[in-house]
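Annex B. Sample input.
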Amino acid sequence: MTPTAMIKLLEGFAEIYEQAATSSAMVGLAGSILRHGKRTIGYTPSECEPSLTEWVKWHKPKPKECYYNSQRIAMNVSGAVYYEGWFCILPWPLPVLHAWVEIDGKLFDVTAEAYYSSLIEDGTIPASFIKQACYLGAAVPFEHVLLCQMETEHYRDVLPFLWVNLGQRKEFLCNLEKSS
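Annex B, continued. Sample output.
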């Protein structure tokens, strides 16, 4: 499967997710990300960004903890922008809700690095698959991340929390439309 086909898969998944929204409060979130979200193929290794390399060295990102890892980076690494949306990677092109960061327009995914590094080392997947990881998501202003953390008292997906809060939905849509 090509990266372009995986992006189409993510878009199709977002459409299904939108149609399947069981809570009226959640209707519109996936569709908004589908219409205005950023599509990216591949990510930059963390060792290519000195400030991120230092963070990774001291904090040891945890596999399967994308919200925790990415929110902590957004809090502690200057210029990091927090994103949420969907992610998929070969050889298992199954869309997964996910979080990552961008620094200077480059996508960094320390959670995928932490998870897939052992699979690459033992030969389960080739390193080239990482370059074909696909992302569809939206930037989340850091003040919204902090609001969610204060309200829920833990690291979690922020977009559904914001979307349900009607006061934040309109502001999020305006910011998303401006950035697309």
